[in-house]
From TrEMBL:
One of its GO terms (cellular component) is ATP-binding cassette (ABC) transporter complex, substrate-binding subunit-containing. This is SN-glycerol-3-phosphate ABC superfamily ATP binding cassette transporter, ABC protein. The lineage of its organism: Bacteria, Bacillati, Bacillota, Bacilli, Lactobacillales. Residues 7-240 form the ABC transporter domain. Gene3D superfamilies: 2.40.50.100, Nucleic acid-binding proteins, P-loop containing nucleotide triphosphate hydrolases.
Length: 361
């Protein structure tokens, strides 16, 4: 058994019939028992990958291995996969118990009614839906229906659980609750899980690891905190983080980083963070709003246009450069809209990207 590469995707490509290449040479692996998030904007190819893993779509080229064995020629029903869809896909005319039992009452591994009910009840207990056993899905809330869908996916005791945006039909508060529950549940069952979402906060909170896609290409495959602290490129830095990162157009010339109204010395940057020698030219300097703070010795001045409260912190919004600049401060900082403040960037925390988005610092 290969626990490190329990799920392995090798050089996977998918070209749809209309010639569109949705997945471009993607490779990754998932450890046994891990919960990995496939993250990315709408249309980046997350569902296409999940459908290839499930066997609902055939890859154009490349390989998919479960536990070391290629499954691309294996029928979906023989892949030992549980799939939870965005819209739950429950049978409306069946009770909750009948829905959860259903996979065990069909196909060649079908169980006796008593045995099927016993297993179904075990997973209904785990997902806390036993009290709704005799109700129809239509009489349940979205969160309860989602639990039924999860119980039904787990009842065949699959090796791998695939979840496609399972929380998107729930309201904000319930999403937080159910995502904690899902994480606790899949960890308790110990099932290897791939969880698709377009929501970076959801991915950071639920995933052991995150694979971020854009345009059918992996942008970063990493632990959550590294997307924040060590983004691979401009796309990653801008996709992950709330409030979003601030970006400044700069020119680097003769050891200086020259912005529209500030000038920094490259010598003041942290030597250990340069990815390569930096030649003179145009770059983008990016800094997360918590690393740009009001400070008497600031790098530039700007007027606060608006202040937004988010929990215990406030976002100060400045009209600086063409794009908005933000600073994230705690509630105690005595500042209001209309104030002109000097802002200082933490140079050991900023990033530098080429105009093409390649990270150089
Ligand atoms: P979302 O979050 O919106 O569901 P996604 O990341 O899951 O998006 P996919 O559904 O995998 O994206 O689609 C990836 C790309 O492939 C999209 O540009 C989509 O328009 C295209 N696509 C999907 N299905 C087909 C198809 N059957 N034929 C042609 N193109 C398709």
């Amino acid at each position: 058994m290969n626990n490190e590469k329990f799920v392995e995707v090798k050089n996977l490509r998918k070209v749809y019939d209309n010639g569109y290449e949705a997945i471009k040479n993607v490779s990754f692996s998932v450890k046994k028992g891990d919960l990995v998030c496939l993250l990315g904007p709408s249309g980046c190819g997350k569902t296409t990958i999940l459908n290839m893993l499930a066997g609902l779509l055939f890859p154009t080229s490349g390989d998919i291995l479960f536990d070391g064995k290629s499954v691309v020629k294996t029928e979906p029903k023989d892949r030992q996969i549980g799939y939870v869809f965005q819209n739950y896909a429950l049978y409306p005319h069946m009770t909750v118990l009948q829905n959860v039992m259903f996979p065990l009452t069909v196909g060649k591994n079908k169980k006796s009614k008593e045995e099927a009910e016993k297993v179904a009840r075990k997973y209904m207990d785990l997902t806390q839906i036993t009290e709704f056993a005799n109700q129809k899905p239509g009489s349940l809330s979205g969160g309860q229906q989602q639990r039924v869908a999860i119980a039904r996916a787990l009842v065949q005791e699959p090796k791998i659980l695939l979840m496609d945006e399972p929380l998107s039909n729930l309201d904000a508060r319930l999403r937080l609750k159910i995502r904690e529950e899902i994480r606790a549940l899949v960890k308790k069952v110990g099932i290897t899980t791939l969880f698709v979402t377009h929501d970076q906060e959801e991915a950071l909170s639920i995933g052991d690891e995150i694979i971020l896609f854009n345009d059918g290409v992996i942008q970063q495959d990493d632990l959550g905190q590294n997307f924040y602290l060590e983004p691979n490129n401009y796309f990653v830095a801008n996709f992950v983080g709330n409030p979003v990162i601030d970006n400044f157009k700069v020119e680097i010339k003769d050891g200086k980083v020259i912005g529209s109204d500030f000038e920094l010395n490259l010598d003041d940057f942290d030597n250990s963070r340069f990815k390569r020698e930096i030649s003179d030219g145009q770059y983008i300097l990016s800094v997360r709003p918590e690393n740009i703070q009001p400070d008497e010795n600031g790098h530039f001045e700007a007027e606060i246009k608006d202040v937004e409260l988010i929990g215990r912190e406030r976002i100060l919004k400045f009209d600086h450069e063409a794009v908005q600049t933000r600073s994230l401060v705690n509630l105690e900082v005595p500042i209001k809209a209309g104030d002109k403040v000097a802002l200082k960037m933490r140079l050991d925390r900023v990033f530098l990207f080429t105009p093409e988005g390649e990270r150089v610092y």
